[in-house]
Amino acid sequence: MKPMELARAEPGPAFTVTLDGRQLDALPGQTVAAALWAAGVTSWRSTRGEGRPRGIFCGIGVCFDCLITVNDRPNQRACLIPLRPGDAIRTQEGTGHEH
Amino acid sequence: MSTDPTRSHAPGPPHLAIIGAGPAGLAAALAAAGEGVRVTVVDAARAPGGQFYRQPAAGLGARRPGALHHQWRTWRRLRDGLRRQIDAGHVTHLPDHHVWCVERRPEGGGIDGGPARLTVHALLGPGQETPAEVRADAVLLATGGYEKVLPFPGWTLPGVVSAGGAQAMLKGGLVVSGRTAVVAGTGPLLLPVATGLAAAGVTVAALVESTGPRALARRAGALAGRADKLAEGAGYAVELLRRRVRTLVRHTVVEAHGADRLEAVTVAALDAEGRVRPGSERRIPCDTLAVGHGMLPHTDLAETLGCRVESPGQRVWVDGEQRTDVPGVWAAGETTGIGGAALSLAEGHIAGRSAAARLRGWVPDPGTWAGAAESRAELRRFFEALDTVYVPPAHWTEQVRDDTVVCRCEEVTAGAVREAVGELGAGDVRTVKLLTRAGMGWCQGRMCGPAVAGIAGCEQAVARRPFAQPVPLGVLARTGEVRTGEVRTGEVRTGESEQDDDDR
């Protein structure tokens, strides 16, 4: 967690969210993408056509590559959405509407 | 002031809506509020600052938030100024408001012939389903820019991110995607990205810049005018040396390797014509590639308003006062041409002063912003010179294989684009788009626009996107239900309160 040290971050208490049912720690203020990166996860979506893995690309909400399902809402941009305790994140296949 | 037509329709001072809370938007807000105009700053982020002054999220409790920033003192001055103006009731800051359209009612006549009646349509919060409207007498677009990334084999692999994206994740979330990074492409942004990642504990295996020092030297005369900017660049160079970051100039990434995520990149040297030198390829193991080829202005809102957008450059045209060619609409910062934070501050200041004066019925005196105008002229010259230096390799399309995905959203390959041009006879990017679906996906061509144009060998056209954000159909259907006159100028109205009204 070197970047946290660099900014001398003293975050509020960590809380738990789930990724496909698996428990994951998140920090207050972190976006879905930041929490996933912190947990070592870099891909969380497969594309509609080729089923290729995707994660963060532009990081600022422009490219829509980081789409993910949050609390049953598909196609949310992981780089924009802050996490709340108990959020259920699911990796997304295709359009996210196929389940 | 009693004869001022803009004030006749609503009580109180005239109202300026500013879209974007980055350097340009904040400078404009402070300048306009200081001149007796009521200002509403509408911004998509949860905290002001834009991309340049992006902060660690508040919940992360950063005690040294400036660690990953430059010009932190300038930011503090802007932040404190904003706070004072908010406390004084002159400025309203609306964070987490995602603007999808600015609507201008032609019958309003604009500031020269009555209230412009501009309506800013936004969606609230992370869910972006609840609508909000802001009515104003004038609008200032300070919507910034985003990064251009040209495709190469493997660029869709997780672990390959835009250089600005890596920086945004680091600044805002205090996270990095791996342990070993390569920073590549072209442009001044690569320097702070490489030094930032290195400072955050990432091993930066190489900084790969396709431009060579000779190109910089050729423009030395034009660049010498801004010694501060050159010193900034030199500072980064020293920092890279100190952190032992290998810098490869006149090199380019030709391929990213990996199965489900990035494992290595192949870089190669470029010859004087911008072609890869055969046999110069070398493989660098890494788990992160931060890549960028320059910046593009956000022009969507200006396009829907009918503002003139210049191509090439795809920037909103403005006059000396930062006015667009549409009455009541100003623009400042990257949206009028890429030039960094200092230029954005100067343009924002001028735009804010001009808008305030015009809204109060005066012809502004440019003498009151002479310092900012001088700075603007110098910085525009500087960045025009820089633009001719930091250009992608002339033959970059030769590295793009037929099976390389060009449009990330619709998974359109370079082969499909080439077929559309070669066999199906497409002669412009619009036809390529219709034949291949390149640019029809979620990002509406923001990511693939320059790539499709380059591979097709066509000029990049000014995009015509009706909305700057995806909008739920329900929101679209209800837009316009709020009749003119129901909402007083400057009042913020949300879909929720609309619901409340219905219940009453």
TrEMBL record, chain A:
This is (2Fe-2S)-binding protein. GO terms for molecular function: iron-sulfur cluster binding; oxidoreductase activity. It comes from the Bacteria. Pfam families: Fer2_4. Keywords: Oxidoreductase. The keyword Phosphoprotein does not apply. InterPro entries: 2Fe-2S-bd_N, 2Fe-2S_ferredoxin-like_sf. Transmembrane segments: none annotated.
Automatic annotation (TrEMBL), chain B:
The keyword Oxidoreductase applies. Residues 485-504 are annotated as: Disordered. InterPro entries: BFD-like_2Fe2S-bd_dom (IPR007419), BFD-like_2Fe2S-bd_dom_sf (IPR041854), FAD/NAD-bd_sf (IPR036188), FAD/NAD-binding_dom (IPR023753), Metab_Enz_Cyan_OpOx_G3PDH (IPR051691), Opine_Oxase_asu/HCN_bsu (IPR017224). One of its GO terms (molecular function) is oxidoreductase activity. CDD domains: GlpA-like_Fer2_BFD-like. Residues 15-336 form the FAD/NAD(P)-binding domain. Residues 485-496 have a biased composition (Basic and acidic residues). Keywords: Oxidoreductase. It comes from Streptomyces phaeolivaceus. This is NAD(P)-binding protein. Residues 405-455 form the BFD-like [2Fe-2S]-binding domain. Transmembrane segments: none annotated. It holds the Pfam family Pyr_redox_2.
